[in-house]
Amino acid sequence: MRHLLATTRASLVLVGVIFSRLATGTIWAQFCDDGACTKNCGMSVSISNPDCLRQEAGRNSIKFHGEDFIGGYLVHSPDNACGCQNDCTNIPGTGVPTCMDISQKATAQSYRFQLTTCQEYEAGPDGGIGNNCPGT
Questions:
Q1: Phi and psi angles of residue 87, each rounded to the nearest 5 degrees, phi first
Q2: Which DSSP state fits 53?
């Protein structure tokens, strides 16, 4: 029985390592001023980096480039410190779009990428597009 438990545990660790490598991939994003990813695109940032992006307010699209990505989410925040979520954009992993228009999304002053879904407890009852910001 102990041998089976050790083998199962080792297998789960190996599968976790494989899937974590696939999830992070090498996808980069550039925020752009227009809705078509052609004007004033900024510096590329890795979408596997969950840090707050404070300098992208007023942007209307995101240009993606890279490979080996299985999906993620862009969290929109109305403040300049990613303090809460007023919207969340799903970034599909299969056939990653080269340009994503975010001009119709909630107004944001900061953004952050996350690889896990925007769950109900993060975004309200509509499962990821809601608002968990107090007073808004």
A1: -170, 160
A2: B
Q: For the residues 95-101, what does the mean pLDDT come to?
A: 79
- CA 22 and chain centroid, separation: 15
**Amino acid in position 35:** G
- Is the pLDDT confidence value at 115 over 70? yes
Q: Which tokens is 111 given?
A: 């953004």
> pLDDT at position 32, please?
97
Taking a C-beta distance cutoff of 8 angstroms, is the pair 99, 30 a contact? no
Specify the residue for token string 């952050």: 112
Average pLDDT, the chain: 76
Number of H helices, E strands in the chain: 2, 7
Q: Report phi then psi at 17, rounded to 5.
A: -65, -45
Q: Give this prediction's pTM.
A: 0.70
